[in-house]
Amino acid sequence: MTVHQIRPADTAERQARIELAGCFRIANRLGWNEGIANHFSVEVAPDRYLLNPYELHFREITASNLLLVDGKGDVISGEGQVRRAAFFLHPRLHTLLPRAKAIIHAHPPYATAICCVKGGRLDHSSAHAMLFARQVCYDDEMGGPPNEDEIQRVVRKVGDKTIIMHAMHGVTTVGNTVADAFDNFYFVEKWAQLTILSRQMGQPVHRMSDNTLWASPDRDKTLTPRAQQAHLNAWLRVLDREEPDYKD
């Protein structure tokens, strides 16, 4: 195997490539993706974004075969096509939304099922609600064609939220880092799974008190690295053992 020699000038981009490629592999393992559909991106410089090529299954994605594209979706480096309709929103969201350096969009089964229910909402009955309720935006409109009007509507709706539940569609998460966006996505799907399974039990569901719900505790604030990064790092160690080619 050829070892990639990391130059000081490209260390940050290289790390972003490794983490984003790892997220695709994890998403494949957890059943979030649909064939070659769905798209993750991360901003690595002004008007420069890493994005998955149109043709590749998530299991095939590596650090080196991610595309580097500009805000128009034109390929700067890499081989493959950009699904422009899918990517159209991403560069504008990266630019306009707070904390949107990284964006993950996919259709995980439980969260997407909630999005398919009219007025679907995540229950405030588990610790997930206490940690993430402040971050969720429910977009109950099925957006029109991806044009500037639609971009502005989404931006106004989302504001400073980092988890977007799209009616009749799927989920988008954003974050200051790849780890932040990944952690949000992982736990919103777990939260959705618990919401659906608890409702199926046919018993009254707990409702967390508002004082507890909106406390928004800082997870493991005395530990390093931050909980989000530690979570992604743990998954990457699993991939290092079982799918090490993701770093190629």
By CATH, the topology is L-fuculose-1-phosphate Aldolase
Q: What share of residues are in beta strands?
A: 5-15%
The fourth-level CATH homologous superfamily is: Class II aldolase/adducin N-terminal domain
Widest β-sheet, arrangement of strands: 4-3-2-1-5-8-7-6
Number of strands: 8
Distance between the termini: 8 Å
- Counted by DSSP, the helix tally is 9
Number of domains: 1
Which geometry do the CA atoms define? Answer: globular
What is the averaged pLDDT score?
Answer: 90
Structural class: alpha+beta
Q: Describe the sheet with the most strands.
A: 8 strands, mixed
Helical content, roughly? 25-40%
Explain how this protein is built.
With 248 residues, this protein is of the alpha+beta class. The chain has one domain: L-fuculose-1-phosphate Aldolase, CATH 3.40.225. It is built from nine helices and eight strands. The longest helix is centred in the C-terminal third of the chain and has 22 residues. It is globular. The termini are close together. The N terminus is likely disordered.
Structure summary:
By secondary structure, this protein is of the alpha+beta class.
List keywords for this structure.
disordered N terminus, 8 strands, 248 residues, L-fuculose-1-phosphate Aldolase, alpha+beta, 8-stranded mixed sheet
What's the layout of helices and strands?
Blueprint: H1 11-30, E1 39-45, E2 48-51, E3 67-69, E4 75-77, H2 84-87, H3 89-96, E5 102-106, H4 109-116, H5 127-132, E6 136-139, H6 148-158, E7 163-166, E8 171-175, H7 178-199, H8 210-213, H9 227-242
Helix pairs in contact: 1-9, 4-7, 7-9
